[in-house]
Amino acid sequence: MATMAEDAWGLPAVPAELRRRYVDDGWWTDETFAGFVDRRVAAAPDLRVRIWSEQRPCTTTAAALHRDAARLAAGLVRRGLGPGDVVAYQLPNWAETLVVLWAGFRIGATLVPIVHFYGPREVRFIVRQSGARALVVAAGDHLGDLDLGDLGLDTVVVVGDSAGSSAAVPGGAVRFADLLEAEPLPDPVPVDPDAPAMVGYTSGTTADPKGVVHTHRTLLAEVRQLASLNVLGGRAAVMASPLAHMTGMLGGSLVPLHQGNPVELIDRWDPGRVLSICAEHDLSPGGGATIFLTSLLDHPDFGPQHLAAMTRFGLGGAPVPRAVAERAEGLGIAVTRAYGSTEHPSITGSTLDVPAEQRMFTDGCPMPGVELRLVDEDGASVTVGTPGEIVSRGPDLFAGYTDPALTAAALDPDGWYHTGDVGVLDDQGFLTITDRLSDLIIRGGRNLSAAEIEERLATMPGIAEVAVVAAPDERLGEHACAVVRPAPGVDGELDLAAVQAHLAAVGLPKQKWPEELQVVADFPRTPSGKIRKRDLRDRLRR
To answer: 0.90 exceeded by the pTM?
Structure first.
């Protein structure tokens, strides 16, 4: 039976032909996440789970976490929570986060992860918009700023303070440790595999986060797809992306569990500490957005001793400048790239057996089971080599948004998802992302590609990272503004004349040059490390 929240979401039915195909091809099974966790833990009960945290360090096993999850599940059921109820949580990458995740699956709840650095405004919006009945939150941080009585929650669970002890909890809330005193829930609560398993809130181009709904079928298909890339070649990896974000959820917990690899999580990205951990414990750094790789390579501690743990690196979640891929390959780090989103997590990808040119400089081929088209403004397919909007569908595609209006705008009746990204396909089917529709700069009626300008500026000495966005212009409507983060150790300030001189030297036509420059210490970012260009554009308009 659908909950009130699901009814309000108005999720469309998957076209019957696609449903039959995904079932016949084995992408969709009747397994739910609770069954998946039970099966994988039974196969590898001693699988190591290690949390690299100064606040709450932990080394344990999958079986121990599974027992805690069964106890927490029973505690939640006692409080009236069950199948279809929405349970939100806002926690760093701690062992308790995995316990909450597995317990929520066990009772058939729909889980809503909230990245731990979201403030009260975002938490309030997500809790209310998702219809959450329960919230699990860390003591400290934003807990004191939340008006729990104003959120309409039935249950608030508080995990202990930063020192690891139980902290005082607000009135009406319950301690996490107290819920673990229940007798374990012996079996998962039955749930429909087509039911929503998780709602990931993505902070993209809209003012408020968008609730992206995934079912047990779509997310388990994604686990299988992502595992097939085998980016790390079976090595254990330290993952810093939050478990409240799709990258961390998949790469940090679900895919390692599926593959039988140790789960290694760190709760705060510290490049120096990651380098030390990887070198001392024979671990790879987890992949992700370009910033994760460049911050390691730029760190003063980085040296030849770290390359043994960094023989390969999977990049995705943000544009990958050619200069970064070439730098990594020059150091002996094999780069692979992938493209996806919270809505459709794995659209394209590459493996190490792909020719270097395409592995380094394209975003790969469509993943197994995924269909891909590039279309023009009228929805007609474009020819090879012609830019077009990327539309995709596949067994790991989301079921819709929590806002039916957003769903109607993004999903067509045939099940195609309109990504808003622009790309080009070559004659061998490799995709290269060239732009985002919202990133086009319309200068005096002429479209300028932000990605093209960024690619040229990424080769300029002294620039570590760059984002090009549209700035308001009284005469032309818009002009290009380059926002740059200087490389470590750069003396003096970068200026617009130097930027334009570099672009002239690399052959970029003058009409595409930025007419404004801003230098920043760092960028506003999404949880996956992607630059939030919307924030940059808003700042320019203010």
So the answer is: no
